[in-house]
Amino acid sequence: MAARVRAVPGVVGLSAGSFGATATPVPGGRIAGVAVRGGEVEVGVVVLLDRPIPDTAADIREAALAAAGASGDRSVHVRIEDVAGDDGEGTPSGEDGDGAP
C-alpha cells in the first residue's frame, strides 16, 4: 500500500505525523505513514502544490483502496501532514526514513 501511495502524482513521501502515530508495525520495524486498524486505513503524506490538494487526496484514497483490495468497504482517511517546495524538498514530520514498503 505504501508503494502505491508514494507513486501517486504529487506525493513526495509518507509521514507518520507529528507524534509518529500513523504507522503499521511489521516484523523488524514499522511502516511510517500508513496505519491499518480494523476497517479503517489512515495515510499520512507530504505533497507538492503542483495540483489541487483535493485531487491528490482523492488519488491517494483510490490507491490505498486498490492496494487493500477493497471497493469502498473500508474507510480511508488521508492526512496531508506537510507540503514540500516545487523541488520536492521538505522535511516530512515523523518520517522514519527507513525506506520500508
Whole-number mean pLDDT: 84
Count of alpha/pi helices: 2
Beta strands, count: 6
Strand content: 25-35%
Give the CATH architecture: 2-Layer Sandwich
CATH first level: Alpha Beta
CATH topology: Alpha-Beta Plaits
- Give the helix/strand class: alpha+beta
* Weakly predicted, low-confidence segments: 91-101
Summarize the main sheet: 4 strands, mixed
User: What is Rg?
Assistant: 13 Å
Based on CA inertia axes, which overall geometry fits?
A: globular
The secondary-structure element order is HEEEEEHE
Distance between the termini: 8 Å
Portion in helices: 10-25%
Q: Write down the domain tally.
A: 1
Descriptive tags:
disordered C terminus; alpha+beta; four-stranded mixed β-sheet; Alpha-Beta Plaits; 21% helix; 101 residues; single chain
Model description:
The structure is a single chain. This protein has about 100 residues and is α+β, with helices and mostly antiparallel strands. It has one domain (about 1-85): Alpha-Beta Plaits (2-Layer Sandwich), CATH 3.30.70. Helix content is about 20%, strand content about 35%. It has helices at about 1-5, 55-70; strands spanning about 10-15, 25, 30, 35, 40-45, 75-85. The strands form 2 sheets. Strands 1, 4, 5 and 6 form a 4-stranded mixed β-sheet that branches. A two-stranded antiparallel ribbon has the order 2-3. Strand 5 (about 40-45), helix 2 and strand 6 (about 75-85) form a beta-alpha-beta unit. The radius of gyration is 13 Å and the shape is globular. The protein starts with a helix and ends in an 18-residue tail after the last strand. Mean pLDDT is about 85; it is low at about 90-100.
